[in-house]
Design brief:
The protein is mainly alpha-helical. 75% of the residues lie in helices and 5% in strands. Helix 1 crosses helix 2, helix 1 crosses helix 6 and helix 5 packs across helix 6. The longest helix has 21 residues. The protein is globular. The chain starts with a helix and ends in a 5-residue tail after the last helix.
């Protein structure tokens, strides 16, 4: 349970950095508390999308992973971020990613920040 909480907080932090750095990734809310709550819910959706959908996509695109020496990972991460944006829209969460190239850059930022936060935060389970 603690590992799940740490990963969710790392995802929320990484998403916050991406929202802060990129103008075309938006998170809106009336107050700071509402934005934080929305960010945590978006992190849960993002974690769920990465847990359920990403392994299937990676298996289906395995030949492309070999052919591109893993660079297709950027595209897969972008698609997961766009899917998260779509699901959040359906759940009336105020998180939106505008455009594929923004998603590619956002996915790269989220991957780097999430990796760094997971290195710093404790991993007990």
């Amino acid at each position: 349970m603690m590992n799940f909480l740490v990963k969710t907080l790392a995802n929320a932090g990484a998403l916050a950095v991406a929202v802060w750095l990129l103008d075309k990734i938006t998170l809106t809310g009336d107050s700071t508390a509402k934005k934080v709550w929305t960010l945590i819910l978006v992190a849960l959706v993002f974690g769920l999308v990465n847990f359920l959908v990403k392994p299937i996509v990676k298996i289906l695109t395995f030949p492309l992973f070999i052919l591109t020496l893993g660079l297709i990972t950027l595209v897969v991460n972008a698609l997961m971020l766009l899917l998260t944006s779509w699901v959040c829209d359906k759940l009336d969460l105020s998180f939106h990613v505008q455009g594929f190239w923004t998603a590619v850059l956002g996915g790269l930022i989220i991957s780097i920040v999430s990796w760094a936060l997971n290195m710093i935060l404790p991993d007990t389970d």
